[in-house]
Specification:
Elements (H helix, E strand, L loop, with lengths): L1 E3 L5 E6 L6 E5 L2 E3 L2 E3 L5 H8 L8 E7 L4 E7 L7 E7 L1 E7 L11 E7 L5 E4 L4 E6 L3 E7 L8 E3 L21 H4 L4 H7 L7 H16 L11
Antiparallel strand pairs: 1-2, 2-3, 3-11, 4-5, 6-13, 7-12, 7-14, 8-11, 8-13, 9-10, 9-12
């Protein structure tokens, strides 16, 4: 779904297979010095979702060596946290997974390549799971709608055969012990640790409502410095 923003900034927006998740691909301005792009613009986000991005309560900056796998991670709901992610260095295979019980797309997933040389942003509603493989030394930056404590983060196995994610079961991949020991989606549902679809949007609407009252901030088009 392409759209033309102010100042000639071209943005392609695509709804992902996970209900409520979107990919935003901006026009990239390039010259001999490098490039400039805006992976998040409020006017584009508002046009698609009907509201502004949440006030940012936390920003996470994760650096991963080539061959690192993280995920599938999700935040317990409550408290829940929506996120807006982009790759600020390197390149990663990024997988969005719907782990919200009761969602119309429960168990659906989609893989994307996030690349710092071709910037894009991924919006994930509260309760949505994500995983990624660092295809080279990579930095992923997440903007969060709420503080995310380590004890609120749960994991489902990236190697769950029923999910069939495009991540090789390779012993040379760099993974945490928690991620290697993560249970399947079915087992996580049986244990009652998965977010439910109904409360997930509420965790996001509360900060969004506060932002809507203050009105959207003006967002200029990217200008090469």
């Amino acid at each position: 779904m392409p759209r033309q923003g102010e100042g000639g900034t071209f943005v392609e927006v695509r709804e992902l297979r996970t209900a409520g998740a979107y990919l935003f691909v901006p026009r990239t301005l390039r010259d001999a010095r490098g490039h400039v792009a805006s992976p998040y613009r409020e006017e584009d986000f508002r046009a698609v979702t009907g509201g502004p991005l949440f006030p940012v309560r936390q920003a996470d900056h994760s650096r991963s060596l080539r061959g690192t796998v993280r995920g599938v991670h999700f935040t317990r709901t409550p408290p829940g946290a929506a996120s807006y992610a982009h790759c600020s260095r390197g390149r990663a295979l990024y997988v969005v997974v719907d782990v919200r019980v009761g969602s119309p797309t429960f168990g659906a997933w989609e893989s994307l390549v996030l690349d710092a040389d071709h910037p894009s942003g991924v919006y994930l509603p509260a309760g949505t799971g994500h995983a990624y493989v660092a295809l080279e030394d990579t930095v992923i930056t997440d903007l969060l709608s709420a503080p995310r404590a380590e004890e609120d983060v749960e994991a489902v196995s990236v190697h769950d055969p029923d999910l069939g994610l495009p991540i090789p079961d390779d012993p040379d991949l760099i993974m945490s012990e928690r991620d290697r020991a993560a249970v399947t989606l079915a087992e996580a549902e049986r244990r009652g640790i998965l977010p439910r679809y109904a409360p997930a949007p509420a965790a996001e609407r509360r900060p969004c409502a506060r932002a809507a009252r203050s009105g959207p901030a003006p967002v200029p088009p990217p200008v090469a410095p």
